[in-house]
C-alpha cells in the first residue's frame, strides 16, 4: 500500500498536476524558467496620468482622492485649468500621435532587457486596450483611439522579448469598488462585474507572459478572488505553462504568496533571499509616470543603474527598470540614453548576468566593492568601482592549479597569485577600458 501511494505521488505531478485555489497549492508552482534567465526587464508606466504629467502617476489621487488633498496638485489645477475641469477630461489629450511601437521595442531590445511590462490598467482604471468592461474609459474609445497593449505587444514579441502586463486590482474612483469598500469588502460587485471579466479577457486576448498585479493592499485576497483566478491561470488559461506572476494579490500577500516576490516598490534585500524576487525601480527617482517638470538631478545616472542591477542579480533578483513615456507616445530621449547605456554595458558584461545564479559569496569589499554571480563552473566578480591601483584583491574565491582569470571583453588571461592556502587571490589588472556604466567583470574559471 505504501509503495502504491509513493508511485502515485511520483506519477501524478507529471500527468495531471492541477493547482487548487489555495496558497499552499499555488505557491508550490515552479516559476517558468524563462523568467529567472531573463534577469532584466523594462517597466513602462503610460496612461491618462501621463497627460497632466505632474507629481506622479498618482496625480488623480493626490488631487482629489486623499484627505487632505496635496496642495501642490490642487493649486496646479486651479492655476492652469478652468474651474470644474475633471480628470477624465485629460483623456482626449492622450494623443499618442508619435507612438511607434517598433521604435519603442528597438530601444527596449537595445537596452539588453529580455522582457517588457506595460501598464495595461493603472489605479485610474483607464485601460490601454479596448476593454469592453471599461466603457469610454479606454484607449480605443478615447485618447489615442488605438490598441496600445496589442500594438506594443506585437512589436516587443517581434524582437523576441517577453511581454508582461501590469494590472491594478483596485480603481480609486470606480463606484462599484467604492461601494464594496463601504461594505467592508463583504460584497464583490466590482470584482464580479468589472475586475475579473476584464482580467480574464485581457489574458485570453493578449496572452501575456507575466502579470504584474498591483493595487491589492486595501482588501484581502478573498475579496479579489485571487486564488481562483490564479488556479485558472495556472491550470486552464492559454498561458498556463509560461505565465509568471508577482505577489500583489491581496493585503498581506506581498513577500509571501504568488509567483516571484516584489515585496514593496524598490525593495532591496540585504542578503540572499530564499525566494525568487524582482526589484522594480524607476530612472526618474520621483515618479513612475512621465513628469513634465523632471530635472536631470532627479534621475538615476548610468553607474547607479548598473550598480543597482548588479547588486540585484547577485542577490538572485530580476531588475525591472521603469521609464514613463510622454502622452505623445515618445520615450524621453534622456530615458532612451539610459536604456541604451544599460545595453552597451550588458553587451560586454551580459555573460555575468543572463541566466546566472547567485554564488556561494554574494559580495565583498576588500579592494573595491565586488558582486559575484556564477554560471556553470565560472564565477564572475563584478567591480562597481574602478580600483585605485592595477591590483585587485579578492578573498572569496579559492584558487586551484587550473585557475584562469579574464576580463570580460578581453580574452587575454590575467596574471594572478594566491593569497593563502585558505583562499583569496590577487589579480593584476590591465588598464581598464572606458566603460559607460563604470563597472567591469572578471571571469574566474577553475576556482572553488
Ligand atoms: C518580425 O517581423 C518581421 C517582419 O514582419 C518578420 O519577418 C520576423 O519574422 C518577425 N520576427 C519575429 C521574431 O517574430
Ligand atoms: C470567486 O470565489 C468564490 C469563492 O471561492 C467562488 O465561488 C466563485 O466561483 C469565484 N468566482 C470567480 C469568477 O472566480
Ligand atoms: C567599501 O569600503 C570602503 C573603504 O572602507 C568604504 O568607503 C565604502 O563605503 C565601502 N563600500 C561598500 C559598498 O560597502
TrEMBL record:
It is found in: Lysosome. It comes from the Eukaryota. This is Alpha-L-fucosidase. Residues 362-444 form the Alpha-L-fucosidase C-terminal domain. It catalyses: a neolactoside IV(2)-alpha-Fuc-nLc4Cer(d18:1(4E)) + H2O = a neolactoside nLc4Cer(d18:1(4E)) + L-fucose; a neolactoside IV(2)-alpha-Fuc-nLc4Cer(d18:0) + H2O = a neolactoside nLc4Cer(d18:0) + L-fucose; an alpha-L-fucoside + H2O = L-fucose + an alcohol. One of its GO terms (cellular component) is lysosome. Pfam families: Alpha_L_fucos, Fucosidase_C. It is an enzyme of class 3 (hydrolase). The gene is LOC117559945. Gene3D superfamilies: Glycosidases, Golgi alpha-mannosidase II.
Amino acid at each position: 500500500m505504501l509503495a502504491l501511494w509513493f508511485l502515485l505521488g511520483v506519477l501524478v505531478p507529471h500527468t495531471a498536476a492541477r493547482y487548487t485555489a489555495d496558497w499552499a497549492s499555488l505557491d508550490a508552482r515552479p516559476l517558468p524558467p524563462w523568467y529567472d534567465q531573463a534577469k532584466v526587464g523594462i517597466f513602462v508606466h503610460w496612461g491618462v496620468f501621463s497627460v497632466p504629467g505632474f507629481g506622479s502617476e498618482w496625480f488623480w489621487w493626490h488631487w482629489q482622492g486623499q484627505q487632505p488633498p496635496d496642495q501642490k496638485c490642487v493649486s496646479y489645477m486651479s492655476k492652469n485649468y478652468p474651474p470644474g475641469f475633471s480628470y477624465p477630461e485629460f483623456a482626449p489629450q492622450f494623443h499618442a500621435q508619435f507612438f511607434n511601437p517598433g521604435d519603442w521595442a528597438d530601444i527596449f531590445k537595445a537596452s539588453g532587457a529580455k522582457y517588457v511590462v506595460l501598464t495595461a490598467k493603472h489605479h485610474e482604471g483607464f485601460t490601454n486596450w479596448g476593454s469592453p468592461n471599461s466603457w469610454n474609459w479606454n484607449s480605443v474609445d478615447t485618447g489615442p483611439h488605438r490598441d496600445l497593449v496589442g500594438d506594443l505587444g506585437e512589436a516587443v514579441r517581434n524582437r523576441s522579448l517577453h511581454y508582461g502586463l501590469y494590472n491594478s486590482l483596485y480603481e480609486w474612483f470606480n463606484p462599484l469598488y467604492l461601494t464594496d469598500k463601504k461594505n467592508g469588502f463583504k460584497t464583490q460587485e466590482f470584482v464580479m462585474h468589472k475586475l475579473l471579466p476584464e482580467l480574464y479577457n485581457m489574458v485570453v486576448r493578449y496572452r501575456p507572459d507575466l502579470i504584474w498585479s498591483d493595487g491589492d493592499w486595501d482588501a484581502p485576497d478573498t475579496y479579489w478572488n485571487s486564488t481562483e483566478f490564479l488556479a485558472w491561470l495556472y491550470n486552464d488559461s492559454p498561458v498556463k505553462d509560461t505565465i509568471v506572476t508577482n505577489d500583489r494579490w491581496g493585503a498581506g500577500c506581498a513577500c509571501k504568496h504568488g509567483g516571484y516576490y516584489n515585496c514593496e516598490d524598490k525593495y532591496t534585500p540585504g542578503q540572499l533571499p530564499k525566494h525568487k524576487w524582482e526589484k522594480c525601480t524607476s530612472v526618474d527617482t520621483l515618479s513612475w509616470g512621465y513628469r513634465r517638470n523632471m530635472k536631470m538631478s532627479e534621475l538615476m545616472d548610468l553607474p547607479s543603474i548598473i550598480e543597482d542591477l548588479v547588486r540585484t542579480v547577485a542577490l538572485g533578483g530580476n531588475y525591472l527598470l521603469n521609464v514613463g513615456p510622454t502622452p505623445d507616445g515618445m520615450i524621453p530621449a534622456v530615458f532612451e540614453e539610459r536604456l541604451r547605456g544599460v545595453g552597451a554595458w550588458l553587451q560586454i558584461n551580459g555573460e555575468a548576468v543572463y541566466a546566472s545564479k547567485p554564488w556561494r559569496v554574494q559580495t565583498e569589499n576588500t579592494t573595491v566593492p565586488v558582486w559575484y554571480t556564477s554560471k556553470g563552473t565560472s564565477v564572475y566578480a563584478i567591480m562597481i568601482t574602478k580600483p585605485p591601483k592595477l591590483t585587485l584583491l579578492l578573498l572569496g574565491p579559492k584558487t586551484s592549479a587550473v585557475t584562469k582569470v579574464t576580463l570580460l571583453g578581453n580574452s587575454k588571461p590575467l596574471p594572478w597569485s594566491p593569497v593563502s592556502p585558505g583562499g583569496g587571490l590577487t589579480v593584476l589588472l590591465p588598464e581598464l577600458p572606458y566603460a559607460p556604466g563604470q563597472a567591469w567583470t572578471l571571469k574566474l574559471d577553475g576556482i572553488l
